[in-house]
Amino acid sequence: MEYWLPVAWFGVIGFGVLMYVLLDGFVLGLGILAPFAEDEHQLDHMMNTAAPIWDGNETWLVLGGAGLLAAFPKAYATVLSALYLPVLLMLIALVFRGVAFEFRFKAVRGKPWWGAAFALGSMFAAFAQGLILGALVEGMPLQEGKYVGGAFGWFSPFSMLTGVAVVFGYALLGSTWLILKTEGRLQLIARTLTRPLVLVVIAFMGLVSAWLPFLDSRIMARWFEGGNFWWLSPVPVLALLNAWWLWRAAMREGRDAAPFILALCFFALGFAGLVLGLWPNIVPPSMTIWEAASPPSSQGFVMVGLAILLPAILGYTYWSYSVFRGKVAADAGYH
C-alpha cells in the first residue's frame, strides 16, 4: 500500500490536470481568439458555444489542487511557496474571466469593455499556467526538501517560453472548438486561424524539446537512460503524426469534429510525454511521489471519497456535453 497508493494518487491528479487542460483550455482559447471576432454579435456567438458548460470545467482544477493537498502535502507546500505569484495571477485571471463572461451578456454600453476583460483574463490565465508548467519542468532549487529559490525563482527565459506556448496552444483548442460548434462565416475564420496555429504550436513544442537537454530537471535524461527511449519513442512519433493529421483536417470541409479531436489528442500526447519524463518525481528535480506522500491511512481515507466523487464528476461532464452537443446557432441566447 505504501508503494501503490502514491502511484494511484499521482495518476488521479494527472488525470484531473489533463481533463482541466483539455476542457477549460478551449474556453480560454475562445477568450484568446476574441480579438479576431469581427463584431460584438460574432463574439456573442463564440462565447455562446461554451456558455452552458464552461464553469463546470473548472471542477477538474479543484480536483487536481485538492488531490495534491490531500495526497502529497509536502509537494503542495513546496509548489505553492515557489509558485505563489504565478498561481495568484492565474486565479485572479480566472475570476476576472468568469466575471467578464457573465457580465458581458448583461451589459449594454460597457459590452466592449467586458469583451476586452474576457480576452485579457483568458490570456493571463493561460500565460500563468504556462509559467507554472515551465517552472515545474525546469526544476526547482530544493534543499532538504524545501524550496530555496525566492519569490521569483520561477522566472526564467524557459518559463516565459512555455507561458507563450500555452497561450497559442489554447488558442488552437479554441479555434478547433469553433470549427466543431459553428457554421458559416465564424467557422471559416476559425479554419483560417487553425492552420497557422498548428505550425506555431509545433514550433513551440520543438523549441521546448530542444531546450530540455540544457535544463537540470533530469527530464531529458529520463528519456534516454537505460534504453528508455525505445519504448517511449511512440509518444513523440504519434505527436508528429497527430500534428500532420490536424494540419490536413483543419481545411477539409465537412470534417468538423476531426480538428478538435486531433487537437485534444495532441495535448494529451504532450502531457503523456511530460509525465513520462517527470516520473517518479512530483517536484523536479528530486522530490519523488513517495517522499512527498501523506501517510497511507490519510491517502486511503481520501481515496474512499474520491471513489464516490470522481464518477459523479465524470457523469456530470458527460451529461452536460451530451445535452449541449451539436452546432450552436448564431442567434442562440445565453441567459
Automatic annotation (TrEMBL):
InterPro entries: Cyt-d_oxidase_su2 (IPR003317). Pfam families: Cyt_bd_oxida_II. The keyword Membrane applies. It comes from the Bacteria. Keywords: Cell membrane, Membrane, Transmembrane, Transmembrane helix. It is a multi-pass membrane protein. One of its GO terms (cellular component) is cytochrome complex. Its main location: membrane. The chain crosses the membrane at residues 12-37, 82-101, 113-137, 157-180, 192-214, 229-247, 259-279, 299-319. One of its GO terms (molecular function) is oxidoreductase activity, acting on diphenols and related substances as donors, oxygen as acceptor. The keyword DNA damage does not apply. GO terms for biological process: aerobic electron transport chain. It is found in: Cell membrane. Belongs to the cytochrome ubiquinol oxidase subunit 2 family. This is Cytochrome bd ubiquinol oxidase, subunit II protein.
